[in-house]
Write a structure and sequence with these properties.
alpha+beta, 10-stranded mixed β-sheet, 4-stranded mixed β-sheet, 20 strands, cytoplasm, translation initiation factor activity
């Protein structure tokens, strides 16, 4: 019977898994190579390598990395065969990455004579339908099933130029302005600051009661929108006489209006450009708006996937310059003016003025309505409230805000569901009564920034309710006649939760901008939203900027240049 002897076992004195290099025989060819553990998910390297093949006449396969000097295939810089988790385990002498180039991996030319080719010469001028035959659809036409390598379906209206569309800044950036700060939106979304209930200082104006008849309007009982001649003031912060009085008493360090503050608090949602003029006087900061700026109008479908645009065309006199095309009723500017008109008149029309109803008179009359005014005053009440932005009890950074109203009345408008920039909105006349949720969801998606600003304004004012009307064109091709289809009521805090509006984030943004301005010396600054990027920038500007003096100087300079 043959005897059996056990082979020599090389024990590892270190106690770790794997053989020990001290116990391996001298003749073992892998003795000086360290053991590198690896998992099954690690890449072990290429399964084939032709480094030892010489000659420059070899044909490389498509998509392979080829050495441009030797014509051989090589490893990329830093590639490892085993032990990918341990870079020091193995080292390969490889050539520079720049010596590699990618062989053309384009798909081959389609075979002549496709599926629907007729005769020998039918491949010229015919359409290739891929590997699958077209199927007849419900409209009597054919639906083409494209192959995986072919591009998607038919593009939409002016799809070819969407990537080239750029917006103009809301204010012309002068080269002499100094940029002090640049903040990306993703940094703004991480800010948080909890603010307590405000202190109400004074109230001014008169409010008329809301007409509840508009809550019962449906698409079958629509009511025409009527133009109402009323005066409503939207005075900027620095021109407000009440804010000037409060500033002289040192009531707060920062002063703003609810419209300006809502834009700043909802800045990460904004797409269109805007700007806020900031004036530092002593230890006080004023947030102002420019006359005729973006704060005086209402946007339409700002957050849609393809928002309305102001199309431009090459300038005939200067091909390198583009000028606005002839005006259309569905451009961004035209829709913005239309939405502003609708909001103002819906707010005027939806309150009861005659016969004399029980009005809500605040402590003092409207501060902007002078004794010489003859036109009737709109229903409007102003409340001046102070919010404390201090992080600790010892820190006091107060902001005084002028807010409007006890009930916020706004309106959404429908222009043409089939027009570019409609954002896939359903037809309100057919869906508003039966599928209101779908209409609301679409508006929350396409007008996220606008609805968020309205909600923040209502919360700042302490409004108990929001009334949002649904106003549509009487004819999609006529932007002068409108009808009221419905009105919705909601509580501002509940609507803010539906919109995912974070007041803590908004106050954090305000506090960050306030800290930047309070550190600056006295002067004038402007906070500008980039027209094409999610970025805001703070510029230092001359005191004469955005005033009549600057315009007069520019006009005088242009006249001097025009003189021979």
């Amino acid at each position: 019977m043959a005897s059996f002897s056990l082979p020599l076992i090389y024990d590892n004195p270190d106690g770790s898994w794997g053989p020990s290099s001290s116990n391996l025989p001298e003749t073992f060819k892998f003795k000086d190579i360290p053991y590198a553990p690896y998992s099954k998910s690690d890449k072990l390297g290429r399964f084939a390598d032709w480094n030892d093949i010489s000659g420059d006449s070899r044909q490389a396969t498509s998509g392979s990395a080829i050495n441009s000097r030797t014509g051989t295939r090589g490893r990329r810089d830093g590639a490892q065969t085993f032990g990918s988790g341990l870079p020091s385990a193995f080292a390969f002498q490889v050539e520079d990455e720049s010596s590699f180039s990618l062989v053309d991996n384009k798909a081959g030319a389609p075979r002549r004579g496709g599926l629907f080719a007729r005769g020998r010469g039918a491949s010229r001028g015919t359409t290739s339908y891929g590997s699958r035959a077209p199927q007849r659809n419900t409209r009597g036409g054919f639906t083409v099933n494209r192959g995986p390598g072919q591009r998607g379906g038919r593009k939409g209206w002016r799809e070819w130029e969407k990537n080239n569309r750029t917006r103009e800044s809301s204010v012309a950036i002068d080269p002499s302005w100094q940029m002090l700060e640049e903040i990306e939106f993703h940094r703004l979304t991480k800010l948080r600051l909890e603010v307590d209930e405000p202190e109400e200082l004074e109230s001014y104006g008169r409010l008329y009661p809301y007409n509840k008849v508009y809550d019962r309007i449906t698409t079958k009982t629509e009511r025409p929108l009527q133009p109402v001649d009323r005066i409503k003031y939207n005075t900027t912060t620095s021109d407000d006489p009440i804010i000037q009085q409060l500033a002289s008493k040192g009531t707060a360090a920062i002063y703003a209006t609810d419209i300006i503050l809502s834009v700043l608090m909802c800045a990460p949602r904004s797409v269109y450009p805007w700007d806020i003029v900031i004036v530092r006087e002593g230890d006080k900061v004023f947030f102002d708006k420019r006359d005729g700026g973006p704060f005086d109008t209402v946007t339409v479908n700002e957050n849609a996937a393809d928002p309305p645009q102001d199309p431009t065309a090459p300038n005939p006199s200067n091909p390198n310059e583009r000028v606005p095309e002839p005006s259309s009723i569905n451009t961004a500017t035209s829709l913005s003016l239309e939405a502003t008109y609708i909001n103002q008149n819906f707010g005027f029309q939806s309150v009861i003025e005659t016969p004399p109803p029980p009005t809500v008179d605040f402590d003092k009359p409207n501060p902007f309505y002078g004794p010489d005014e003859t036109e009737p005053l709109a229903s409007c009440g102003y409340r001046y409230r102070v919010f404390d932005l201090g992080i600790t009890e010892d820190e006091e950074i107060k902001i005084c805000v002028r807010t409007e109203g006890l009930t916020t009345i706004r309106a959404l408008n429908e222009f043409d569901p089939r027009a570019p920039g409609a954002g896939g909105a359903p037809d309100w006349r057919s869906k508003l009564d039966s599928q209101r949720g779908a209409v609301v969801a679409t508006e929350m998606k396409n007008n996220s920034c606008k609805l968020a600003k309205w909600t923040v304004q209502s919360i700042l004012a302490g409004a108990e309710q929001m009334k949002i009307g649904y106003v549509s064109r009487a004819n999609p091709r006529d932007n002068t006649r409108h009808v009221i289809l419905s009105t919705a009521s909601m509580r501002p805090m509940d609507f803010a939760a539906q919109l995912n509006v974070s007041l803590a984030n908004g106050w954090g943004i305000v506090r960050t901008v306030a800290d930047l301005c309070l550190k600056m010396p006295e002067g004038k600054y402007v906070l500008v939203k980039d027209p094409n990027k999610p970025v805001i920038r703070l510029y230092a500007v001359p005191f004469s900027a955005f005033t009549g003096e600057e315009e007069e100087e520019e006009g005088a300079a242009s006249e001097e240049e025009a003189e021979p």
